[in-house]
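Supplementary Methods. Inverse-folding protocol.

Structures were first reduced to a discrete structure-token string of length 209. This string, shown here, constituted the complete conditioning input.
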């Protein structure tokens, strides 16, 4: 109980601090949200989306899951993307991984982790596609970090392949998909130079006419 009380106290202090700078902040925000960005990131407690990009409530729409995976049968993630794109009309979807990701690490070992192994199976597939490149590295951390980057690139492609994103592009909606990675060691974001803004940039196989 002591710990939970601390959380409520922190919350009060936080709300008061914001109201001091802008007394209307919460009443304005309660009427609508108008974020320009959708962030899809890892659930890891060390990667809090809005904090690491210095954004306030209302500025970024967020979906997080273990190892920032976008699966075509995941109604939760797809619903977030659909709402963000169709209703909120976000201009940017950022898929952000992080180095040293526990989910990525777990997908590289051959241990049993329980139910989550079914989720991590998606990452094992990415490892399989790039096995030669990853196995060529000797250092275990480097292997994990390369797979962290490759996972971002793959998930960015998965976002672009959704009917949601392709329909938005078809209707002329301005929408860019970006792939970034965050370092928990120094707090710095790195752009993996993945930036897709139209269907011509995605694979022919997944392109919807
Ligand atoms: Co992670």
């Amino acid at each position: 109980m002591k710990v939970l009380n601390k959380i409520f106290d922190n919350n009060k202090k936080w709300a008061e601090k914001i109201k001091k700078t802008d007394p209307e902040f919460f009443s304005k925000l309660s009427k609508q949200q108008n974020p320009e960005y959708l962030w899809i990131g890892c659930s890891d407690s060390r990667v809090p989306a809005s904090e690491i990009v210095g954004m306030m409530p209302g500025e970024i729409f967020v979906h997080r899951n273990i190892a920032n995976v976008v699966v075509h049968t995941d109604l939760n993630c797809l619903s977030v993307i659909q709402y963000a794109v169709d209703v909120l009309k976000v201009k940017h979807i950022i898929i952000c991984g992080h180095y040293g990701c526990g989910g990525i690490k777990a997908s590289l070992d051959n241990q049993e982790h329980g139910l989550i192994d079914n989720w991590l199976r998606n990452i094992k597939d990415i490892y399989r596609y790039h096995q030669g490149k990853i196995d060529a590295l000797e250092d275990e951390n480097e292997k994990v970090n390369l797979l962290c980057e490759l996972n971002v690139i793959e998930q960015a492609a998965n976002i672009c392949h959704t009917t949601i994103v392709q329909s938005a592009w078809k209707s002329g909606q301005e929408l860019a998909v970006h792939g970034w990675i965050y370092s928990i060691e120094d707090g710095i974001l790195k752009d993996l130079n993945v930036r897709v803004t139209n269907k011509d940039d995605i694979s022919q196989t997944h392109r919807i006419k």
